[in-house]
Design a protein that fits this description.
Layout lengths: L2 H7 L5 H9 L3 E3 L2 E2 L14 E3 L2 E3 L6 E6 L28 E2 L8 E7 L2 H8 L7 E7 L5 H9 L13 E6 L2 E6 L6 H8 L4 E9 L2 E2 L9 E3 L2 H8 L12 H4 L10 E4 L11 H11 L9 H5 L4 H11 L6 H18 L7 H10 L3 E6 L3 H10 L8 E4 L11 H10 L6 E5 L2 H9 L3 E5 L8 H7 L2 E3 L7
Parallel strand pairs: 7-11, 14-15, 14-17, 15-16, 17-18, 18-19
Antiparallel strand pairs: 1-2, 1-3, 3-4, 5-7, 5-13, 6-7, 8-10, 8-11, 9-10, 11-12
Helix pairs in contact: 1-2, 8-11, 11-13
Length: 464
């Protein structure tokens, strides 16, 4: 490879600027100064340095793209904008999409130059799972769900393989397929007498769409994501199932107490924290890692402060960090955080059935009290406990057991509402029944939440 192209591919500058750097003796190859731009190097073995800094070349690169509608899954097209045109700033001209999404479909698309991995992922014999979020013309009937789960005739020699069906709302489903036939999802829904109005791919194999990416945005895959994609082991995600079959109905007569996690379960507040984390770390010139919310999931307010101080080398004391977070979140919790749909009505129903109510939150006591007061709920809960009141945060059962003791109710007679995996695990470790609650922030973990929990709801109106 030409030396100037090598450095250009690594984004060290334009070809013209790099030619000047090379001519001026700023580039070495294996310790020897090279002044010819067309000098040929072996990018695998030669050691190249620019201004004394080692330059490392990656033969294969991997990008996650949130494909927008209106863009075609191709590298070249005479008429339409292509997905490759969205990644021009990478400086790579050898990328291609792994598989295709229809022009009007958006969502996860893997872009790479690794032909072997693409072959593995697209091979019919591997049956790699693809999960699509679909808005459909009308709600699915039970017979239509059964047909999709059995395999429907889409006009080919063989029926489509059985699909996993998750009912999210009346006209919104997640469909899991293990094939890649032309317009397959649309044809499957048409085969059962329905119609796809909106389609978005949210997962392919082990790779899940990063919900921080807006349509048209992309990022490089993490090392863990690449390793998982290349693994020969079966995908760890179970295929979704119809929620009518997956979970029984909740009977309040089976319980003496209902315990709510707060953020994401009782109130719609999880969106606040990525905003605050970005703003807070930005004060110190630190860019938050992509998986920060996963890294801190389940930690108490104090544990999270310790994590931030140690991980990001924050110079402030722990009390100062927590005070800053409380101050940043205070106004939002008072004026911008709503209750989950149907939550207030469900609370009133619990009170009518003499069900005791408690809160078990990893948030700070100040913010928990603030949001409860803002919605006039403080007097309705006999116990509000935070992660700072116990030794171990979720997924340890400590906080749920503590609330049960305070309410005077045996754990097996308690029902927990949780929106994250660690919280569900905590409730079950306490010997309680757990209902998973849908939340946009944890939507990428919905399959796991459904599998772990005893019950699942999209919102509390389903319990009224």
């Amino acid at each position: 490879m030409r030396l100037d192209k090598y450095l250009s591919d690594l984004k060290y500058g334009t070809r013209n600027s790099l030619k000047k750097d090379i001519k001026n003796g700023l580039v070495t190859v294996n310790g020897q100064t090279i002044r010819e731009s067309d000098y040929k190097i072996n990018e695998k073995t030669d050691k190249v340095a620019l201004r004394g800094v080692a330059c490392v070349y990656e033969k294969y690169v991997y990008y996650m793209l949130h494909k927008p509608a209106g863009v075609v899954s191709a590298t070249k097209d005479r008429k339409d904008k292509t997905v490759l045109s969205l990644l021009q700033k990478t400086g790579r001209d050898d990328l291609f999409p792994v598989g295709r999404l229809d022009k009007d479909t958006e969502g996860l698309l893997l872009m790479t130059n690794d032909g072997m991995l693409a072959h593995e992922l697209l091979s019919p014999g591997r049956h790699v799972e693809k999960v699509y979020e679909c808005t459909i013309r009308e709600p699915l009937t039970f017979s239509q769900i059964q047909a999709l789960q059995t395999g429907v005739d889409i006009g080919e020699k063989k029926p489509a393989l059985p699909a996993g069906v998750t009912v999210l709302e009346d006209r919104k489903i997640a469909l899991t397929i293990t094939e890649g036939k032309f317009h397959q999802v649309k044809r499957m829904l048409k085969a059962v007498g329905n119609e796809v109005l909106y389609l978005k791919r949210i997962r392919m194999g082990s790779l899940t769409l990063d919900n921080t990416l807006r349509p048209g945005e992309y990022r490089m895959l993490t090392t863990d994501e690449i390793t998982m994609l290349k693994s020969k082991e079966p995908d760890i995600h179970p295929a979704p199932v119809c929620k009518q079959e997956a979970h029984p109905a909740i009977k309040l007569t089976d319980f003496d107490a209902v315990i709510f996690d707060l953020d994401g379960s009782l109130v719609d507040s999880m969106w606040i924290w990525p905003v605050i984390d970005n703003e807070y770390l930005g004060r110190f010139g630190i860019k938050p890692p992509q998986d920060l919310q996963t890294m801190i999931g389940g930690r108490s307010f104090s544990e999270t402060a310790v994590f931030f101080k140690e991980t990001f080398q924050i110079p402030d004391e722990l009390d100062t960090i927590k005070a800053d977070w409380n101050r940043m979140a205070w106004d939002k919790y008072t004026h911008e955080v709503p209750l989950k749909s149907g939550a207030e009505e469900f609370i009133r129903r619990c009170i009518r059935h003499n069900i005791k109510l408690g809160i078990a939150t990893s948030n700070s006591r100040e913010l928990a009290a603030n949001v409860m007061a803002a919605h006039g709920l403080a007097s309705r809960f006999a116990c509000i406990m935070t992660g700072c009141d116990v030794t171990k945060g979720k997924p340890a059962p400590d906080i749920y057991l503590a609330v049960a003791r305070a309410l005077g109710v045996r754990p097996e007679r308690c029902l927990v509402f949780e929106d994250i995996v660690h919280g569900i695990m905590a409730g079950q470790a306490a010997g309680m029944k757990v209902c998973a609650v849908y939340d946009d922030t944890s939507a990428i973990h919905d399959d796991e939440k459904r599998t772990l929990a005893d019950y699942y709801i999209h919102d509390f109106r389903e319990l009224l």
